[in-house]
Structures are given as C-alpha cells and as structure tokens.
Amino acid sequence: MAPRKRSDEPELFNRLTVLRTERGLSRQELADAVGVHYQTIGYLERGEYSPSATLALRLAAVFALPVEAVFSLTPFRTLSEQVYGTQEVR
Amino acid sequence: MSTPTRVQRRAERLDDPRFESLRTTRARRLLAAALCGLLVVEAALFVLVDTAPVAAAIGLTLVVVAFVLCLGALKASTRGIEELPAEALDERQWQLRGEAYARAYRLGFGLLTLELAAVALWLVAGWAAPDTGVLTAAVLLPFHVGLVLPTLVAAATRDV
C-alpha cells in the first residue's frame, strides 16, 4: 500500500533498482540497511512513494553516493545513453 | 541478540508471509465485507434477544467466534498498520496509518451523527421505548464499529 500522493506533488525519479542490482542487494537487505519494510523499497523503486529526506540520505549512504545521484526531480539518463551517448528508441 | 519485545513479536506475526494470500485487494475487500456482514447479523440477533433468547445467545456466540477470526485475518491482511505502535512501522506505514485513521474518523463521526439523529427522531416522534435487545445493540454496536473501523478502512480503501 503506497500512501496517496497529493496532486501537486512533483514526481521523484530514482536509480534505486539499478544501484541495488549493481550491488547485488535484495530488497530485504536494502530495507534492513535503512530500517524500513521490504515492501517500502518496492514502492520507492516503482516511484509510487516519495521518501523523506532522512530516508533518501540513508539510502544514498548505503550506496556511498550523494543523494542527487540516487534521487532527482528530472528523469535520469539511461545507462546506454550515458555510456554510448545514444538516445533510447521510443 | 536481545529478546524481541511483545510489540516486535506482534509485528512479526502480523507480517507473516504465510498470510500473503490475504493481502490481495480482493481478499482484503472480501474480509472487510464479511466483517460488515457480521456486524449486521449481530444487530439482527440483538433484536431477537427478547423474543427468542436461546437462539439469539447461540447465534451471538457463533458471531463472536467468527468476528474474532475475521478481525484477526483482516489485521494480518493490513500487516496491522492501524494497530502497531510507531516504533514497529516505517515512514510509509505511518502515512498509511494516518490516512486510515483520518478516513475512519470521518466515517465514524458520520455514523455516530446518524445514530444520534435516529435517537432524536425517536424521542421527538414519541414512539414507544424499544426492547432491551435494541437498547443493548444501540450501545454495543457503536463500540464494536469503533473497534474495527480503522482496520476496515485500511483494508477496504487502499490498494496493496
């Protein structure tokens, strides 16, 4: 269950799925590391829940990255775009 | 490793993966509907208390057992977010609990207003005093509804 979003709430994009997979962490392991329920990680990854600043900072700390590398108000560029400079075919 | 507290044990029990089948939208809504049905049956049985006391007593005993089982299943379906203290929940679950309580408060207030309006109408119209069973139901049912309303609202109104 994700809490209802306010209509004026901006969408928050994140790289949690990529980072978690890259580090070989399960949702449960990441949840335990930041002290939340494993379902909350799923809601965060799907963008259905926006974390508090504290939780966002904790998540960034787990990956040893600045918070803006994990969360952004604008969509992140895809990996292929970043590595090869190509645009994703839509 | 420290011994889990009573709250932690309760949280673990309500979060048990064995109850995952109860956590689908359909299952939660069915359980919520079943609990509402039990409240209606309970009210009907209280009306029968004066005319058929033995049948009503047997019926009420069965309703209580079904009520406890249904409420337990319903709490497992919501992982007990409406019941557990803050330290057993994370920030998303706090938000869900807050939403469930706000909605339950509005709903409960509406139901209480309706009940008071019915009592006022009864008094103004000068109708005869109701039977003991109806009076007992008028006192006990709001208590039971108040008891289960946050769980009902959490289970029935939110998508998992």
How would you describe this protein?
- The complex is a heterodimer of chains A (90) and B (160).
- Chain A has 6 helices and 2 strands.
- Chain A is mainly alpha-helical.
- Chain A has a two-stranded antiparallel sheet.
- Chain B is mainly α and 160 residues long.
- In chain B, 74% of the residues lie in helices and 0% in strands.
- Chain B has 5 helices and no strands.
- Chain B has helices spanning 6-14, 25-48, 53-77, 91-125, 132-157.
- The mean pLDDT of chain B is 91.
- Classes of the chains: A mainly alpha (90), B mainly alpha (160).
The major sheet of chain A is characterized as: 2 strands, antiparallel
Spatial separation of the terminal alpha carbons of chain B: 33 Å
Return the string of H and E elements of chain B: HHHHH
Largest interface: pair, residues per side: A-B, 14 and 16 residues
Discrete helix count of chain B: 5
Q: How many DSSP E strands of chain B? A: 0
> What is the radius of gyration of chain A computed over CA atoms, rounded to a whole number of angstroms?
14 Å
What's the helix-strand series of chain A?
EHHHHHEH
The quaternary structure here is heterodimer
